[in-house]
Design a protein that fits this description.
With about 260 residues, this protein is an alpha+beta fold. It contains 7 helices and 9 strands; from the N terminus they run H-H-H-H-H-H-E-E-E-E-E-E-E-E-E-H.
Length: about 260
């Protein structure tokens, strides 16, 4: 059936998302390892921040070999953990955990900066402040995944339609030009403003035919409620099938034009 084919399309898209995220994780891990091993005793005077600002006497007394071993060990551990946590998160954990690998990476970098203070490349106070900021960023990014995973919710009031949650929208009844209950979704190219992870789409997206549309949907779940405003803005809503059908019945009672 048409609905089954849409569901299959959603699963295929999620699979592509998994692969893309793992490619990103591998790229970031490669950058970490490269950054650690490209610096050596010969070029540290040019590439190693803090060391290159030292005078000749300070550089001679600096334990460069020990620092490079410390740097490489940390970057190898961080890169390995980042790829492993990313892979585990993508395949075994729910979508709300999708920002956990980035949070873990930032926390690891914070610990690295804190530990590197003993080498006195820069001010110890500056190291601790930078480590604290990174820890806060890691915690914030990790929390964002749990917050953004919440589904949008449609509420139809006496005068307006509200889509609540992040990236939501309010549509006055007078601005609604047409509506329909459909099994199809527009094919999107990229996200303009919003959230798109593992089939949950919320916000503004660009389609293959260069239209800007609003989606508040789970792509593997149908049907979807299609709304079009008098200004031409198009919105698709569909989180849970029964709720979507109930919203369609309420809108039908408003006696608004129905899109053929």
């Amino acid at each position: 059936s048409r609905l089954r084919s849409i569901t299959a399309f959603g699963k295929q898209e999620i699979h592509h998302y998994f692969r893309a995220m793992l490619y990103v994780a591998l790229f970031i891990a490669a950058v970490l390892v490269l950054a650690a091993f490209v610096v050596n005793e010969k070029n540290a005077g040019m590439l190693l921040s803090g060391f290159r600002e030292m005078d000749a006497a300070a550089q001679a007394n600096f334990p460069l070999k020990a620092y490079l071993r410390f740097l490489r060990r940390w970057m190898l551990v961080l890169a390995t953990l980042f790829v492993a946590v990313s892979a585990y998160t993508e395949y075994y954990l729910p979508p709300s955990w999708q920002t956990a690998p980035v949070g873990m990476l930032l926390a690891g970098l914070a610990i690295f900066i804190w530990q590197s203070a003993r080498f006195s490349l820069t001010s110890r106070t500056l190291n601790k402040v930078a480590a604290f900021v990174l820890l806060l960023m890691g915690a914030g990014i990790s929390f964002m995944g749990f917050y953004e995973e919440k589904e949008s919710r449609m509420v139809i009031g006496p005068h307006e339609i509200h889509i609540e949650g992040s990236f939501g929208i309010t549509i006055p009844h007078a601005d609604l030009a047409a509506w329909n209950l459909t099994d199809s979704l527009p094919k999107t190219r990229f996200k303009t403003y919003g959230y798109a992870v593992k089939g949950l789409y919320k916000g503004v997206f660009k389609t293959h035919d260069e239209r800007s549309v609003r989606l508040y949907v789970r792509k593997e779940v149908g049907p979807y409620l299609y709304l079009r405003t008098r200004s031409g803005e198009e919105i698709w809503y569909g989180m849970q099938p029964e709720e979507t059908r109930q919203m369609a019945q309420i809108i039908e009672g408003l006696q608004l034009p129905m899109q053929p």
